[in-house]
Amino acid sequence: MTAAEPDETFDINVEDDVWPFPSERFLQEWAPGVLQAQNAWMASIDSLRAPDRKTHELIRMVCTVIARQPGGVQRHARLAAEVGATWDEIAGSILLTQPAFGIVLAIQGFPAARRGYLQGSARVEEEDDGESLAE
User: Fold this and answer.
1) Can you list the domains of the chain with their CATH numbers?
2) What predicted TM-score, i.e. pTM, was given to this entire model?
3) Which of 42-51, 90-99, 116-125 has the highest mean pLDDT?
4) How many angstroms separate the CA atoms of 24 and 42, rounded?
């Protein structure tokens, strides 16, 4: 294979991928023990009692803004919205990165955060509609 020929084993169709993170598919295939250990470690982080879940997701979202990981920004904005974060809380959290990391990272994080917020708030609305229909 040359630089001009892409390695087709790494083509990922995100729409068809059943794994929450594309890397998990590769870990499952090549190092299932690593994936299992990583999942256990992440579950222990997710089970922290403090800070509350909304703050937890906002912090993780801001970390992914700083790390320039739009997929993580979207995911954690969605999860934050699902547990009650408003758009103002999400946007304000992102803007708090600006003094230390610059306005560019904050601006770059907004589109993914907005997509995640809309997904999370839509899910909450669907659940609310389903509860009211069930009553």
Assistant:
1) 19-48 (no CATH), 50-135 (1.20.1290.10)
2) 0.70
3) 90-99
4) 13
